[in-house]
Write a structure and sequence with these properties.
8 helices; Helicase, Ruva Protein, domain 3; 2 domains; alpha+beta; N-terminal domain of MutM-like DNA repair proteins; four-stranded antiparallel β-sheet; single chain
Length: 287
């Protein structure tokens, strides 16, 4: 799943290539991907891309005041093809869900939105105002903008575990399963720590770890083409996806908690005082 660093890198990539181009055509290859009908995607034709930004993990292409919003969800991603394919894309053939053809007066490029797997959650909206999309309007703060005090305000009052809260887009927008693992590891905080009960020291560590992990990942990702961003993310992980491998800080084997459709990783020595988290959704620390 792309998270804040990969989406930010994609935004900067598209800002350097799509801005100034005219939308020649929008081909919707998977009907389920389009979540709005008014204005239709054909309304984008003939308009120019004037900006690219993001809202959390949502990419926003500003097309002369109309906004093409893309939420990649778990298995969606983008490809930039320059020159664009000369053959017409066909619905139902492969992972391609939507193609935007962009003309710069000298040639045509294509922004392809793809989705792997069977769970079709890639979402595209065409709207006048991004804040009319409920998901976007409900997004929390950008985690890179939060200091210790800001984190304290964002987490205040919640009784949920820190792992759960860090991936709640209504609290902070842009962190997913992977980077939340690495942030907690860098902060030396248990995934099961009550988010609303973090003291000043742990809030400081959380703020510093967020800047270190996310900020560093953004720096490493910017400049890479979209097709390289997912592999680049995997190589940057401190504990996520590294079950059984030695922690890069202390050498302890990275442990895992598995749920039905997901899992997370942590270091028992660095984060839980040597205790192992039981591998059940409602478990507590094993004694």
């Amino acid at each position: 799943m792309p998270e804040l660093p990969e989406v930010e890198a994609l935004v900067q990539f598209l800002a350097g290539r799509a801005v100034g181009r005219v939308v020649a055509r929008v081909d919707v290859l998977a009907l389920n991907v389009l979540k709005t009908f008014d204005p239709p995607p054909t309304a984008l034709q003939g308009l120019s891309v004037v900006g690219v930004s993001r809202h959390g993990k949502v990419v926003d292409l500003d097309v002369d005041g109309l906004h093409l919003l893309v939420h990649f969800s778990r298995a969606g991603w983008a490809q930039w093809r320059d020159p664009a394919p000369t053959t017409m894309a066909r619905p139902g053939k492969g992972p391609l869900a939507l193609r935007v053809l962009l003309d710069d007066g000298e040639g045509m490029a294509a922004l392809d939105l793809t989705e792997a797997g069977t769970q079709k959650r890639l979402a595209v909206h065409v709207v006048h105002d991004p804040m009319t999309v409920p998901y976007v309007a409900a997004l929390g703060s950008d985690p890179l903008a939060l200091d210790a005090r800001g984190w304290g305000e964002a987490l205040a009052g919640t009784r949920q575990r820190l792992k759960t809260v860090l991936t709640d887009q209504k609290v902070v927008a842009g962190i997913g399963n992977a980077y939340s693992d690495d942030i907690m590891h860098a902060a030396r905080i248990s995934p099961f720590a009550p988010a609303g009960g973090l003291d000043e020291d742990r809030l400081e560590r959380l703020a510093d770890a967020t800047a270190l992990v996310l900020g560093g990942a953004v720096q490493q990702a910017v400049g890479l083409p979209p097709e390289a961003l997912k592999d680049g993310k995997r190589t940057r992980m401190r504990v996520h996806g590294r079950t059984g491998q030695p922690c890069e800080v202390c050498g302890t084997a990275v442990a895992e908690v598995s749920y039905t459709d997901t899992s997370f990783q942590y270091c028992p020595t660095c984060q839980t005082g040597g205790q192992v988290l039981a591998d059940r959704r409602l478990s507590r620390l094993l004694k």
